[in-house]
Amino acid sequence: MEKFLKQGFKLKEDIIKKQHNCQATGFWVNRSKESNFLLIMHEHLFVFQK
After folding, report:
1. Residue 10 structural domain
2. DSSP letters spanning 10-28
3. What total of structural domains would you count in the chain?
């Protein structure tokens, strides 16, 4: 995000998307470590305007 802001873009909106079906049960914790996959609860979608 900082690179876009330094290039003159303005942050218009920050949309937070909730991740579904990403449970931290023992099974998934072990699988995520084996596959190098992070169990995240949400992610950001930045909308910029130039």
Report:
1. 2-49
2. EEEEEEEEEPPS----HHH
3. 1
